[in-house]
Design brief:
The protein is mostly helical and 76 residues long. Helices cover 76% and strands 0% of the residues. The chain has three helices and no strands. Helix 2 packs antiparallel against helix 3. The longest helix is centred in the middle third of the chain and has 36 residues, at 9-44. The protein starts with 8 loop residues before the first helix and ends with a helix. 1% of the residues are buried.
């Protein structure tokens, strides 16, 4: 008696569908987690506030304390 591959092309297609069915949810979870991670990172990295810029300029010596006080009052 001659033995053949069980199912022929149909068996192959079922195997392929099982592999896709198992990996697709895993890939979707990985994609969702990476998208959420990128969003939270972009929120943490933001432009400095004007007051922070003033403090940095004062620390560098670019402006005097009088200039700092005057500009700070204009900001608030």
């Amino acid at each position: 008696m001659m033995m053949t591959f069980a199912g022929g092309i149909t068996g192959f297609l079922w195997s392929l569908m099982m592999i896709v069915g198992m990996t697709l949810p895993i890939l979707l979870v990985i994609w969702a987690l990476s998208a959420v991670g990128e969003r939270t990172i972009s929120r943490k990295i933001s432009a400095p506030t004007p007051l922070e810029v003033l403090k940095a300029r004062l620390a560098k010596g670019e402006i005097t304390m009088d200039d700092f006080q005057r500009l700070k009052e204009q900001l608030t």
